[in-house]
Amino acid sequence: MRILAISDIHNNVACVRKLRSQEPNDFDVVVVAGDIGDYRATEIFDVLRSFGCPIVYVYGNWDRKLAYSDTFGRNCHLIHLNVIKIGALAFTGFSEFERGRDPLMKPIAKNVTGTRYVQKYRDALIDIITRSGLDLRRTIVITHQRTTRLGQRLPGLLLYLFGHIHTFNVSDSEGSKYVNVSALDRILPVMPAHRRHRALRQALIAEERKWAPLIGELRHVNAGNYAVIEIDAAGRVQVECRLLHHAYDGWTVVQALALYVGAPLVPEEAIFGDNRRFVQSRTGTSRTKAP
Questions:
Q1: pLDDT score at 34
Q2: Angle formed by the axes of helices 41-48 and 13-22, to 10°?
Q3: Residue 267: count of CB within 10 angstroms of its CB
Q4: C-alpha 50: how far from its chain's center?
Q5: Is the dihedral of CA 110, 165, 42, 159 positive or negative?
Q6: Distance between CA atoms of 244 and 19, rounded to whole angstroms?
Q7: In what side-by-side order are the strands of the sheet with 225-231?
Q8: Which helix (H) or strand (E) holds 114?
Q9: How far is the C-alpha of 107 from the C-alpha of 229, rounded, in Å?
Q10: How sure is the predictor about 112, in pLDDT bands with cuts at 50, 70 and 90?
């Protein structure tokens, strides 16, 4: 089986379109490990469906306004305390819902928070896996945040996919492979190569400290990552980290500048649309959101 695994899109439709432009229809399933983006989810799934294969996904902390009942088209499957079988493999996991909005979980006491709260979902997931009689060597678990002690409770699990921490990583534990696939939404500030002299850089940094949208020739490129995963008939798993191409002639990364400053994408990426993450208020300013 060949899997395209992505996470942490954060409403950035442009990075999904860019991904689509550089990957062919060569996958058996697309996995989205949460943080899709609650106000642009429909646009994002419109792009992902063009891969022509099943899509399995979970919700993360950027998806609080999305409901269990929301649907995004044929062959799109929300993974939340359920099991979806594709070929010889079973996909399961759980999504993040705000307290009181999950129709499948019994009410959890308000004093149960943090890790203890997530453990309630972990225990419910393990119960689903046990009652379904799944072969762990043919089972893939998907969550947004990595769940503690999952390997101890499910030794020999084939594969565990997650995101949230924006650092790609592959590790092995308790006979299972763990892959942090995030983040597809990673934007780098760039400037024309001939404009990198020190005086201009200092002026831009001063503006950024005021948290005002930078003007002039500052632009952005989408430079996120994703995973291509191959699983053979014997259950051997190979994971490859791939990057969105972002090396354009005449542009250079300005590492000193922060992100989310409102500059447009470089002209080379204009075909992918925009990278707006936030809903614009009536005053034209953006509401903030935690990463």
A1: 95
A2: 0
A3: 11
A4: 18
A5: negative
A6: 6
A7: 76-78, 55-58, 29-33, 2-6, 225-231, 237-243
A8: helix 114-132
A9: 36
A10: confident
